[in-house]
Structure prediction request, 587 residues.
Amino acid sequence: MKIVVCVKQVAALDDEFELREDGLGVDPDSLERDLNEWDSFSLEAALQLREQVGGDGHEVVAVTVGDEEAEDALLGCLARGADRAVRVWDEDVLARGDVLVTARALAAAVSREEPDLVLCGVQSSDAVNGATGTAVAGLLGLPRVAVVKQLEFDSAAGTVTVARELEGGLVERLRIALPALLTIQTGINEPGYATLRAIKQAREKPLEALEPSDLGLDPGELERVAGARLEAMAPPERGAGAEMLEGSPAEQANRILELVRERVTS
Amino acid sequence: MSAGVLVVAESRQGELREVSRELLSLGAELAGASGGGLSVAVIGSGAERFAAELQAPGVTEVLTVSAPTEHFEAHVWERAVEGLIESEDPAVILCGHTIDSLGFAPALAARLGLGFATDVTSVSWSEVGPRVHRGAYGDKLSAQLAFGGKKHTLLTVRPGIFAPAEPGDGSAAVRAVEVDLSGTARTEHLGFVEAAASGVDITKAEFLLSIGRGIEDKDNIPRFQELADRLGATLSSSRPLVDAGWMDSSRQVGQSGKTVKPRLYLAMGISGAVQHLAGMRGADTIIAVNSDPEAPIFGVAHFGAVADMFEVADELEDALG
Prediction:
C-alpha cells in the first residue's frame, strides 16, 4: 500500500509584522514557519494505516509545494516515520501561485507516485482555503471525502469507511473505494513526536527536490490555471472594534467583574 | 460576457440551510450591480420541494436539478453544478463556504479552470467582473482578489456575514434543468450520526466562560472550571481543547460544535479562528482576554483586554475572595 500525504509548511504572523513594499504580502522576516497543524494529523493517519497493514512494501510519501525552508517540514515528517519526501518548487510561478496552481503541481507529483490513498489536511492555517485536497482529487479524477474525523480501512475490501464532520456536531458515515483522497480534520488521532535519534536519521532518508518541468508541467500553462489574481493585501477594516480595558491585570479583572454584574446578574 | 449570478442552495436532512438565504441577498445585490439575472439552483431527489422557499427579492428563476441521491454526494453535486454552468452560463456562481462545498467546489474549479476563491467575506462588481475580499493569515490581513479573463467565477462565501434574504413574492419561475447524473456517485452513504446529547447544554447558558489554546496544559482546566463556578458561568471551549481530549465535545463552541448566544461570553486565551467566531458572534456581550493584541477575537469582541489569561484569572480569584 502506498499512501501520499500532502503537507504544507505554513507561516504565522509575528506579533509585529511588516507588509511587503509591493503590498501583495508579508515581509518574510515577519513570519514564523511550521508544519501545518492539519497535516500533522493526516501524517499520523497515514503512519497508523501503514502500521495496520503491516509487513514490507508499504510506503508513506510526504509531498509538498514549497521553498527550501519547507524542507524543515518534510524532515519533520521523515523523522516521524514517512519513508520518502518530495518537494516541488520554482521561484517564479509556484512562488506566486494561488491554491489552484499549487493543486496542479501537487496533482502532478501525486500522480507520479500512483498511490492507493492520498491524505491532505482539511485546510492550512495561513491561507485557510480548505480547497487544495479536493482540487487535487478533481484534477486526478480521484473519489474523495472532505473533512474526515474518523477512518477505518478494510484491507480485504479495499475500502475506507469514514466519518465526515458536518456543521453543528452532525456526522455522516460514508464508504469509499480506493484509490481515493481524504482531507483530514484535526482531532482524528493523537499525532506522535519524533525522537532525537529519528530526527538525526531523517536526513538519511530520500528527499527529492523537483521543478514543475520535472513533472512535465509547462510554466506558462501552470500560471494560467490560477483561479484569482491578488490585487492587494492589507489589515482588514475592523469596524468599531472592541473597547479595550486598559490598566493592570487587577484593574482589567475588576472591570470584567463589573461587566458580569451589569450584564448577567442584573 | 455573461453577467448572470447563480446561487447554489444547500439543504440537509430535508431542510434548507440558512446560508442559502444569505447567498440570495448577496446574489441580488451582485446581480443588481452587474445587470444580469439571479437564478438559484437546488439539487437532489425532490429538489422541487424547496422551490417555494427559495423565492426571494431579485430572484428571476428557481432551477431544480433532480439527483439520484437525497443526501449531498460530492461527485454528484460536482457534475450537477458543472451541468448548470454549461446550460446557464453564469458569470458568478455563489456557494456557501460550508463542509458540503469543501467536498466539490474546489474540484470543479480546478477541473474547469474557473475563477475561484473560498471563504470570501465581500463581493462587489467591477469593470473586470467580480472582485472579492477574503482573510489571510487567520484574518489578521485581508486580501483583495479579482478574476480578470475568467468566464465563470465560483466563490464560496463565509456563512453569517450577509443578512438572509427577505421572503419573495413568488414571482420567480421554476424550471427543471436536466443533467445526467447517473453513475456519478463515488461514495456510499451509510447514515447520519447526531452529536451525543450527553454532557452540558452550553446553548442554554446565559454566561459562558470559554477557554482556548492559551490554557497550555490540561492541568490548568480544573482551575478555570472552578473560576467559572464562582462567577456563575458555564465552562465552554474552542476546538483545540476538544481535539486534545481535554474538554468534552459537548462544550465546544464553533462551526463544528455549538452555536451559542449567551448574554455574556467571556473568552480567555482564544485567538478567534473563523470557525470559532461563527459559533459565538451572536452573544449579547463578548469580552475577550488574550495576550496577542492582533488576535482576531478582538474584531468581534465588545470589550477586550490584552493580558495574560492566568494573571487576569489570579485577579478575578482574588476579587471574588
